[in-house]
Amino acid sequence: MKKVIETIKVHKIFGEGEIAVHALNDVSIQINEGEFTALVGPSGSGKTTLLNMIGGLDTPNSGNIILNDQDIAELNKSEMTNFRQKNIGFVFQAYNLIPVLSAYENAEFIMLLQDIPTEERKERVYKLLKEVGLEGKEDNKPGELSGGQQQRVAVVRALAAKPAYILADEPTANLDSTSTKDLLDLMARLNQEENMTFVFSTHDQRVIDRAKRVIYLDDGKIVNDEQR
Amino acid sequence: MNTIIKIAWRNCWRNPLRTSIVILSIALGIWSSIFLMGFSTGLVNQRVDKMIHLEIGDIQIHSTTFDVDGDITNTIENIEALAKSLKSNEDIHSYSARFKTEAYAVSPHGQMGVKLLGVDAIAEQQVLNLETRLLEGTFLESDNTYPILVGKKLAEELHLRMNSKIQLNFTDPNTMQVSKNFKVCGIFSAGNEAFDGTTVFVPKETIQRIIGSVPIHEIIIKTKNETQADLLAANIQQKHPENLIESWKTRYPEIAYGVEMMDSTMYILMSIIIAALLFGIINTLTMSILERKKELGILMAVGMKKWNIRLMIVFESLVYGIVGGPIGILLGYLTMQYFGNKGFDLSGFGEGLESFGYDPMVYFEIAPQYYIIYTLYILFATFIGGFYPSRIATKLNPIEAIRSI
Predict the structure, then answer these.
(1) Domain ranges of chain A
(2) What is the reported pLDDT for B405?
(3) CA spacing 20 to 30 A to B218: which of B77, B173, B191, B242?
(4) A104 part of contact set with chain B, CB < 8 Å
């Protein structure tokens, strides 16, 4: 099975001297293609920091991060931006859609950055929006959609560009139980049918229950790595 | 690129009130620049136009010593050859040869120093349009043997009316004092108090009668093409070096300098207004960026390149110029059309303006190229205005920006 994420002895320290905080301490993990993984831990345990590292949004003080066979330490900022655009799909806690764009335009946004032809974009976006139950909502702006619908658009935005893996930071934190279930069903289906790799950081037991692998973090260290 | 333009356009309208205020301020800034430019150009051009067409003509000829000492003996050299040359010159519309000397005008109510001009009424009217500014009477057409045309200001000072008598005293070429009574046949107002208060016209024949000859001290020329006056003056000068031939720009450099200065002043004014607008744009865009830090962080996180973000912000800035600029230019154009035809009435300041030779009714003028210059200026300003805010945007750290509220 192809290894898509690997961290090797990653350290991340915020601040200096007496106020220095070891957000990640000697963290080594491997995540393979098709995994459905939850990073779990209390606030301050380092799960979001780890998610930022494997999202290429932050760099470690020491250790290596290899994403889709690429050591990201070798990439400059511009190359890293390109790498993120082509390899990583992000789903954020607060949906973070572009408010001035419609659901359709938000969903196709990353593909536009990738210069994917119009017809192909259209086909993929309409298909995915239909799959997530947003048929007929294509022209709605984020403000005209419910939280659950916005999060589904965010998932489509992440998926449409066919990334190597999707990182989701507390994706259900702002959703009600029905929307949470719908979203998790959608992600689980995409994971099974498309072999899409998902990595979540979460507190939500409903997400943890659906994960195939749960990595527990505490004080910046991995305290348990449970395969189900 | 289309998406970036689309996002930029929509971003601008997320806060319609703020965007409208910025656009309105740009439009008003441009409109006020055009208004001032049209007003100043109209005012100065009217002044120059009036001076050329009512007072001095395009070119003047004097003896080389005329300006050194205004003695009556400083007449134009080789006048016959010069007159023949002027007559045959195809670039000259008309010319008028003048007797010109200092005189003393006396009425029962006072006395004033004046410039006495002995002219051929027909030739004079071909060069100047002073007959169009007659308040009363005629341009030296009179049954009277000694008619005189006086300015409004002089008439007021000496309490002259039509047919009033006025005595002129001056020195003849033999240095003898001569004195003659004239009767007012007309009163003009050239709209320049200095000219109206110190200039009197009499027919050449009266000078002939008084002193026995008509020495010519000044020739004024109307060219067929006003813009070629400098060149034509130089050509005549080359042929007649014994006299001094000057275009109005050379003879009255302060007026020509005023015209040139007005252009420079307008550019400076335009730059100040644009600079003020620039700061307004920078301020608005910076506020807008700080308000949507999170969104910019997301764009960076999902892979939007920095130059695309810069481009988006610069487009947002350009939107202000692209919308506000044409509105301001259209408003300016309509204002120009209105005040260009109807005039802008400053009669409240009329006397003050006339004392400097300006008309109280100002007809706005603006060269068409200024509309293009304004358009380019505002596009340039809004383009530049987007740079600093776009730099702020690209300096954001995506993680910190995403975490921001």
Answers:
(1) 35-56+73-227
(2) 61
(3) B191
(4) no
Burial of B260 (0-12, 13-18, 19+ CB in 10 A): exposed
**Using the beta-carbon criterion (under 8 Å), do A157 and B308 form an inter-chain contact?**
no
Residue B350 is predicted with a pLDDT of: 60
The CATH architecture assigned to A35-56+73-227 reads: 3-Layer(aba) Sandwich (3.40)
Rounded CA-CA distance B171/B116 in Å is: 11
Query: Can you say whether the dihedral through the CA atoms of A49, A50, A55, A58 is positive or negative?
Result: positive
Taking CA atoms, B394 is separated from B194, B238, B293, B319, in Å, by 64, 66, 10, 20
Cβ-nearest to A92 among B300, B305, B402: B402
Query: Which two structure tokens, joined as six digits, stand for B209?
Result: 């009668």
Asked whether the whole model's pTM tops 0.80, one would answer no
Facing residue for B399 by CB, picked from A52, A84, A113: A52
For chain A, residues with pLDDT lower than 70 are none
For chain B, which residues lie within 8 Å of any Cβ of chain A, measuring from their own Cβ? Answer: 3, 6-7, 10-11, 14, 294-295, 298-306, 308, 398-399, 402
**What per-residue confidence (pLDDT) applies to B191?**
83
Q: How many helices (H) and strands (E) does chain B have?
A: 16, 12
- Tokens 């239909």 locate to A130
pLDDT per residue as tens digits for the range B96-109: 999 999 999 999 99
Count of CB atoms situated within 10 Å of the CB of B81: 12
Ordered DSSP codes for A202-214? E--HHHHHH-SEE
**Structure token digits, residue A92:** 């954020």
Cβ contacts of B306 on chain A, cutoff 8 Å: 77-78, 81
Strand partners, B182: B166
Percent over 90 (pLDDT), chain B: 50
In order, the DSSP letters of B363-399 are PP---THHHHHHHHHHHHHHHHHTHHHHHHHHTS-HH
Q: Distance between CA atoms of B182 and B147, rounded to whole angstroms?
A: 6
Rounded Cα–Cα distance for residues B281 and B322 (Å): 13
How many CB atoms within 10 Å of residue A136? 10
User: Does A59 contact B at CB distance below 8 Å?
Assistant: no
Q: Measured between alpha carbons, how far apart are the two ends of chain A, in Å? A: 17
pLDDT tens readout for residues B193-214 = 889 999 999 999 999 999 988 9
For residues B401 and B329, the model is more confident at B329
